[in-house]
Each structure stands twice: as C-alpha cells, then as structure tokens.
Amino acid sequence: MIQVVTPQHMQAIDDASEVPLDELIARAGAAVARAAIRQLGGTYGRRVLVVAGPGNNGADGRVAATRLRERGVRVAVVDALDLPERLPRADLVIDAAFGTGFRGGWQFPDVGATPVLAVDVPTGLDAATGVAGPSTPHAVRTVTFQAAKPGHVFADGPARCGDLEVVDIGLGVDRADALLVDAAAVRHWLPHRPTDAHKWREAVRIVAGTPGMTGAGHLATTAAQRAGASLVAVSSPGVDADAPVEALDRRVPGFDWYTAVLDDLHRFRSLVIGPGLGREEHTVASVLRCVEDAVVPMVIDGDGLFALAWNEAGSPAVLVDREVPTVLTPHDGEYGLLTGRRPDDDRLAAATSLADTTGATVLLKGPATVVATPGEVPLIVDAGDERLATAGTGDVLAGIIGALLARQIPAHRAAAAGAFVHGLAVQRCASVGVIAGDLVEQLPAVFTDLLATDA
Ligand SMILES: NC(=O)C1=CN([C@@H]2O[C@H](COP(=O)(O)OP(=O)(O)OC[C@H]3O[C@@H](n4cnc5c(N)ncnc54)[C@H](O)[C@@H]3O)[C@@H](O)[C@H]2O)[C@@H](O)CC1
Ligand SMILES: [K+]
What we know:
(6S)-NADPHX binds at residues 216, 276, 331, 395. By secondary structure, the protein is α/β, with parallel strands linked by helices.
C-alpha cells in the first residue's frame, strides 16, 4: 500500500533526516527528469520548459533541467517570479514553480494544450487537503517524494495530479498518516473458506427496508450473499415475506422489533442495520436497543445512523460501551448529523475524530473513502468513481461489509476491503446507467479477479 503522509509530518521527517538537503534535491530532480523522458517518449529533438520557483520545488526543477540537458533534451528554464511575456514553445512543461511552501497569490501561466508534469504537487494544490487554487494546472503526471500527501488523493487532487508517481529519495518514514488500499492488500486480507465450513459459520443478520422501501433489504442481502456470507437472514420491519431468493425471511413486527432481532442473534456472526429503515421514533428506539445489546460485530448504515444521532443521550456515545466492533458508514450529511458539523477539507482528521469519540470504525464515504479506527493507521480507498453516487449503492456496501465481518475480517480491514470491492464493482459496470443491483452482479467476478491476480 502507498504510504500517505501529511505535509507537516513530511517536513518533520525531512528535518530529522541525516541526508543533506542538496542530496535530497539531487535525487528528486533526477527522478523528475526520468519521469519527463518517459512522458516525452524519448530525448532527441524534444523540448522541455521548466517553470522554476524560488524554493526547493524550484530547485528540484532546476536539477531536472540539468539532467535533461545531459540527455540531449532542449531545455528552457524560466523563473516563476519573472516570467517572460511569451513562453518558449515546448513539448512538455515541468511545473516546479511552488510545492508545499506555496502561499497563494501567484498565477500559473497559460501553457495551452502542452502537457504539464508537476513536481511534488501541481502549483497551488493544497498538499494537505487537495483543494486547488484558481490557476492550478491539470498535470498529466505528478512526481512526489517518499510518500503521497493527502492532497494527491482528496478533493481536486486526482483530477489535477494526473498519474501519481511516488519516488523513494531515501527519507525514512517513521509512520504513515494513512495508507492507500490496493488490490494486493485486500487479497491478503481475504480469508480462504475454512475446511470446516458450515452454513452458520459466516451467517449475516440484516435489518433493512420497511413497507414501500424493501429494495434496501434486497440490495444489502444479495450483496452480503455475493460477498461470501454463508447464510443471510433478513427482516424488513412490518413487511410480509419479501426476502430475496435463498435468504432466510425473518418476519418482525413494524414496531419494537429489537426483541425479535436480538432473540437468535447469537447464531449470526454479524449484524447489518439501517438501510431503508425509516426515521420513525419507534425505529430509533429499536436501533438503539440493538446497538446496546447486540454482541456481534455490527454495521450501522443509513437510517441506523440517523437513529444514533437522535438518541436521547444526544450523541453517538452509546457506541463507546459496545464490546464488539461497530462500523459506521456515514456520507457527509450523516456525519453532520452525528457530530453537529459536516466534515471539513481534512477528511482524515474528520473520520479519525469520529472514530475516537465513538470507539467505532468510521467509513467516511467520498470520492476517496476514509476508514478510521482507534489505534489503527487510517486507510484510504479511491477505487470507485462518481457513478457510486446512485441510490442503493450504500445498501450494497453495507451488505458487503457485513459479509466480510462475518468472514472474521477485523472491522478496520473489512470496511476498507468492502469499499475497495465496491469500487472495483462499479469499474466493471457499463459506462453509463449503472444501478445498484449491477454492482451486486459484478461481485463474484470482482472476487475471482482479486484472488486470481498475483502480486
Ligand atoms: N522531504 C520532501 O518532501 C522534499 C521536498 N522537496 C521539495 O521541496 C518543496 C518544498 O520546498 P519549500 O519549502 O522551499 O517550498 P516551495 O518550493 O513551495 O516554495 C517556497 C518559497 O516560495 C516563496 N513563495 C511561496 N508562495 C509565494 C508566492 N505566492 N509568491 C512568491 N513567492 C512565494 C516562499 O517565500 C519560499 O521562498 C516540496 O514541494 C518538494 O518539491 C525536495 O526538494 C526534497 C525533499
Ligand atoms: K509544483
């Protein structure tokens, strides 16, 4: 997994390093030159323009210019603080104007359609949050050093950075502030089906859907089945026989259903509660009883999160007393309900603070999803795309995580693996018109691919 380190922390690592700054700059600049040659597809007859600023970012760019000249590339270097009226023509522009030391107020010049290779970050992109400035270029590639920064992953980062290359320049990272989840990690986390498998071994209990909203129960159930649950029992409070094919239909009353759910919960390995449950007062009460008394790992999603936010204690503090793992899956609005304010641009900090106050695993949904658990390094999943912002996809994710918890994967990894698999599923779907059920259909192929690939 790629390590993610905040710019502030990277500065501290830099300060503590025994490698002299000049040497770091030499290594960084050489890596930028190599990336430029790859981008140009050669050296002979190629022209490169380096926009170099007054700080170390500019120094990286000037070293790259020297290395490129040595290889026969025609290089022009312009000073970011003294730009000529007309820029020299080039096949590639290297943006070495400013990096993490940028303070705003400087405009990157218009380079038309010429591709831009960014050093560390495209100038003006906030390396801590990924928020771009007004003239931040859209780079085709960004070369950064030692670790990715949150700004490469969140907000405008992916669109402005293009392909991200993380180069080892010999700085020892003591601890990552987050890790970017990849297929190799998820493959490693997925357990093999045990030889003593029986149908109750990885059984998932789901409470989702209400009259008129049974789709949520269907989606969560079929997703759990396709994600490897050995058995799924589903209840949609107040609904008669409506279980999807091959799931157990556990009818429960429309009110005070917690007794019926808790009665035989010991037979299950996880509980998914919340999708499409509605927001009635009696629903809130039943959800809270389950949170208090369910002694299996639990995913609380959708209206389950609403119930947590509106419990009489006035906060999600009921979670702190749970002795088994809990996974919360808020989007920004639900995060706002739980905490009183929506997450700000620092999404790692937002997810971590809710995890710390609740003791739960928090999966904060977004274009890059963050998973935070007390005592664990946060995980970031950027496998999905904007098509996941479609009704019902959250119900699918909740079901997948429920199955992975039932398969005995620890909550932190189960949540991240669930988000990763969910992202791969949407990538396999047709380019337009994706509906949540399509994700479920892709799950067997996603798991097959994941387990088949060597890495
Ligand atoms: N450990 C690391 O990550 C390493 C980072 N390196 C590079 O060092 C960079 C950070 O270097 P610096 O801290 O020198 O920061 P920058 O190179 O981003 O620039 C800071 C300088 O620019 C000036 N400045 C900032 N905004 C301005 C504006 N709007 N108009 C005019 N001047 C402005 C500042 O006064 C300061 O002199 C990184 O982005 C990276 O490229 C490498 O050189 C080596 C190691
Ligand atoms: K830059």
